[in-house]
């Protein structure tokens, strides 16, 4: 679904389970929309490898939706989908960074059934067409596009490879060697350098206005807690500078300490909590 509206209230484990439901590895994940779903009970591993239907819907508006791995199809390279999501919200793309997985061409000539099916699935999820599409879009709409990928850099690495099973050292070494081969290329080093400079420049531009950056990074807002506030009840400020101006003009607060205290007291933002407690305002 593109731009589905407000954020889902499903648990993070459900989102992760749905987006990793790769065929032949994990079963599809079914959830109910508009229905509260409980945390998984003991036996999580069994649930992760089988269809999990937590309960029947308790509302007439609830409906079952089955999710498959987003990589099963053109979204295996999600660049095009990400661009579509941003563009459909009337936002402009300034810089776009895509990181590949060093996969190569798919060999469809297998005699065994399972490898044949896996090869077919891999062919459906070929990441190169979305990459070429993004190259075209970046030129047409004039935004910077960077793609870091060593094509066919890991030709013999399966999705589920982890050797030896105890620590995966052989698999990790294979990935590390492929990365070193990629990063040693002068053209890749230059691309990394230009990309880093672009990202840092844009990051600094975002922080030029501290009030806007604070709102973007922490979702801060301010509710005036002063007595006899002349503003209408329930008025909320989303800009620290505007709220500061309100306190100074409407309540005569000054920089001698009372102003900073009021801003700190009346500001609310997203705060991190330890796992299990969630995040709150």
Blueprint of the fold:
Blueprint: H1 12-19, E1 29-33, H2 44-48, E2 63-67, H3 79-88, E3 95-99, H4 113-124, H5 128-141, E4 144-148, H6 169-183, H7 186-206, H8 210-218, E5 221-222, H9 240-250, H10 258-266, E6 267-268
Parallel strand pairs: 3-4
Antiparallel strand pairs: 1-2, 5-6
A few lines on this structure:
The chain is mainly alpha-helical and 281 residues long. Helices cover 41% and strands 9% of the residues.
Order of helices and strands: HEHEHEHHEHHHEHHE
* Spatial arrangement of strands, main beta sheet: 1-2
Helix count from the secondary structure assignment: 10
Q: Sum up the overall morphology in one term.
A: elongated
Tell me the number of strands.
Answer: 6
What can you tell me about this protein's structure?
The structure is a single chain. With 281 residues, the chain is mostly helical. It has three domains: 12-67, no CATH class; 74-206, no CATH class; 210-268, no CATH class. The chain has ten helices and six strands. The protein has helices at residues 12-19, 44-48, 79-88, 113-124, 128-141, 169-183, 186-206, 210-218, 240-250, 258-266, and strands spanning 29-33, 63-67, 95-99, 144-148, 221-222, 267-268. The protein has a two-stranded antiparallel sheet. It starts with 11 loop residues before the first helix and ends in a 13-residue tail after the last strand.
């Amino acid at each position: 679904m593109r731009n589905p509206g407000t954020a889902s209230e499903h648990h993070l484990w459900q989102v992760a389970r749905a987006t990793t439901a790769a065929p032949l590895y994990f079963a599809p994940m079914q959830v109910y929309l508009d229905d509260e779903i409980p945390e998984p009970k003991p036996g999580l591993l069994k649930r992760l490898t089988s269809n999990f239907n937590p309960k029947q819907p308790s509302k007439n508006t609830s409906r079952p939706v089955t999710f498959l791995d987003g990589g099963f199809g053109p979204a295996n390279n999600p660049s095009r989908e990400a661009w579509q999501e941003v563009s459909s919200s009337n936002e402009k793309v300034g810089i776009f960074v895509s990181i590949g997985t060093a996969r190569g061409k798919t060999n469809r000539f297998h005699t065994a059934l399972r490898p044949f099916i896996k090869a077919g699935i891999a062919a459906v999820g070929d990441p190169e067409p979305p990459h070429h599409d993004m190259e075209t879009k970046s030129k047409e709409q004039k935004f910077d596009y960077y793609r870091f990928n060593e094509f066919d850099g890991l030709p013999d690495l399966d999705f589920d490879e982890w050797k030896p099973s105890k620590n995966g050292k052989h698999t990790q070494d294979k990935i590390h060697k492929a990365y070193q081969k990629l990063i040693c290329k002068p053209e890749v080093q230059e691309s990394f350098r230009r990309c880093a400079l672009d990202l840092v420049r844009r990051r600094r531009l975002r922080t030029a206005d501290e009030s806007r950056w604070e709102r973007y990074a922490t979702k801060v807002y301010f509710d005036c807690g002063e007595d006899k506030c002349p503003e209408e009840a329930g008025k909320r400020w989303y800009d620290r500078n505007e709220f500061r101006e309100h306190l100074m003009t409407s309540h005569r607060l000054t920089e001698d300490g009372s102003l900073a205290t009021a801003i700190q007291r009346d500001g609310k933002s997203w705060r991190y909590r330890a796992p299990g407690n969630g995040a709150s305002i």
